[in-house]
Amino acid sequence: MTADLAGQVELRPGRRPAVASTRAELAPRLLNGVAVQEAPRRAAALFTLCAPAHALAAHEAIAAAGAGDALAPATVSLFGSTVREHLLRLCHDWPRRHAPAAALALAALAAAAPLWAPGDDAGRGAALAGWLRRWLDLPAEWFTQGVDADAVADWCRTGASPTALALRTMQARANTLATLAVAPLALAALPEIGRRLGDEPGWALRPRLDAGVPDTGPWSRAADGAAAPRHAWDRIASRLVDLVRLAADPARLAHGALSPAPGVGLAWAETARGLLVHRVRVEPAAAGWRVADYRVLAPTEWNFHPEGVLARTLQALAPDDVAGAELLADAFDPCVPVRCRPMNEETADA
Questions:
Q1: Which domain holds residue 330?
Q2: pLDDT at 3 (0 to 100)
Q3: DSSP assignment of 117-185, as one string?
Q4: SUPFAM superfamilies given for it (predicted)?
């Protein structure tokens, strides 16, 4: 998907609204009317950053809607796609921006990660654990005793690996960027999400639950029940924490589907950026089943919501704090390009 088609997010530190988006609701435009067999492939092509997760959600939503007999069995690995996204942040994007001296070495390491090794996810998890210990120099006890953001902070302050160096350059400022504690996006909200996706046009672009705008990301996995992140550092470190936990339990990412009404399927999957939701309504066609209505709710719509945690954190920054805004963007990790627009740039344009 091109940047123009995907849209972008603009960050405006020190102002209200602090987040603006040009994202469009593409799923109904590009999926409505297609044969259900085509929908998973087209969803993956449309949302390329988390393509396997979108393909899986499409497959499971269509099956829940009652048209699953038209589909080939799903062979998608949430584990592999999530690990890939985490490694891209940890070994490519963040070092390139915050620790250029470490960027080349980390990029070469990430290219050799065992994401799609032969075998099942359990075998890949063991291979990932060995790779993380050897090449990123992660402590062995993390894989047996657990790890959290504070442990990552202690490790990167003294570690000599390129990964530790890259994170160390981000840590001090990230610790100062406090984020509000709000309820995470829980699986219990899925019935409300499904209803609103079907009943309220445009809701997927600016979603809001009866309880407000929740938080979602690798820091809010259904399997963890962890406390809300305290600051940007907790969110940055959560990607490394998630990698370690995935190596120990490759099947820990929640996914599933239900049918809220005949011909309707609602599917969800935990991804690198948070909880992804697909809703599909199918109808009979001359050659089987086709998509009557398709809706996608991506984690970015929650995390870059104008009333969400990120927006409220940006409002507290100085209007010219570009570095702080960009570090927050790294912490919340959108699936589209981000542009920071400081106050002095707006004044110059006036």
A1: 3-349
A2: 46
A3: -SS-HHHHHHHHHHHHHHHS---TTHHHH---HHHHHHHHHH--SHHHHHHHHHHHHHHH-B-----B-
A4: HydB/Nqo4-like
